[in-house]
Amino acid sequence: MSTTVFLVILLSAVLHAGWNAAVKASGDRTLSMATVSMAGSFMCILALPFVEGPPPEAWPWMFAGFLGSFGTQAILARAYSTGELSVAYPLTRGLAPVTVTAAGALLFAEMPGPLGLAGVVAIALGVALLAADSMRAGGQAGTSTLGLALSAAVITALYTLANAKGARLSASALDYAVWSSVPNGVVWLGVMLVQRRDLKQHLRTDALRSLGGGLVSNVAYVLVLWCMRQAPVALVSALRETSVLFSILMGVFWLEERASAWRWMAGGMICSGLVLLRSA
C-alpha cells in the first residue's frame, strides 16, 4: 500500500469519526443523523450536472450500497441514544473488516498477506475488548448497544463490498459517490415527514452541524471509495476502521465519556493493527 493511499484512508477515518461524534453530541440523534444525511444529499444533487452517471452494471451495487448505508445510519442513531459514542461507533466500524476480508476474497479474489491478516485480527481484538467493556459496565443498556452495533457492523460490511464493486465499475470514485449519495437524504426526509418531526426548528438551531456534517461525510466517502480503487478492499476497510480509535479520543476529550483501562487497551490494539496494515 502506497504512503498516499495510507494517509488518505487515515484522513477519511478522522472525518468519518468526526461527523459521527457531532451527531452524538446533538440533542436529538435521529433528527441530527437525518439532517446531516439530507445536507450531504443536497450537495450531491447540486453536483449531478458536473459528474458522469455510473454505467448500468454499477446500479445494482449502488442500490445495495444505499440500502446498507441507510440501514446502518438508522441503527447507529438508535445506538447513540442508548450508549456512548466510544462504544457504539467502534463496535460497528471495527467488526466490519473481519467480514469484509472473508467476503472480499470471494467477490474480488483479494486475500491480504500475513501482515495484512495480522492487522485485521489486531483490530478485531481491539473491538472485542470494547465489547467486553460495554457488557461489563453497561448492564442492560450495554447489551442493547452491543446488539444494535453488531447489527450495524454486519450491514456495514455488506454495503462496503457493494460500494467498492460499484466504484470500481464507475468512471471515478467521485462520480459513484455523488450519484449513490442522493437517495439517502431523500429517504431520510420522507421518514422525518412521516414521523412529523420538526425539521425547520432543528435546522434553525443546528444548521451549522447539519451542513458541516453533510460536507465532511461526503468528503470522507469520496476518499475511501478512491482508495478502494487503488488497493485491496479488505486492507482499505480495515485501515479505514481505525476511525474507531479517533472515536474513542473524541468520546473522551470532546463528549466527556469515561476512559476505562479496557478502552485504552482496545485503542492500543487498534493502533498495532494500523502499524501492521501499513507494513502490508
Describe the structure.
The chain is mainly alpha-helical and 280 residues long. The protein has one domain. The protein has ten helices and no strands. It has helices at residues 3-25, 29-47, 59-82, 85-107, 114-169, 173-194, 199-228, 233-240, 243-253, 261-279. Helix 1 packs across helix 2 (29-47), helix 4 crosses helix 5 (114-169) and helix 4 (85-107) runs antiparallel to helix 9 (243-253). The longest helix is centred in the middle third of the chain and has 56 residues, at 114-169. 54% of the residues are buried. The mean pLDDT is 81. It holds the Pfam family EamA. InterPro entries: EamA_dom, EmrE-like, Small_drug/metabolite_transptr. One of its GO terms (molecular function) is transmembrane transporter activity. Residues 146-277 form the EamA domain.
Question: Any descriptors?
Answer:
Small_drug/metabolite_transptr; cell membrane; 280 residues; lipid metabolism; globular; transmembrane; 10 helices; mainly alpha; signal
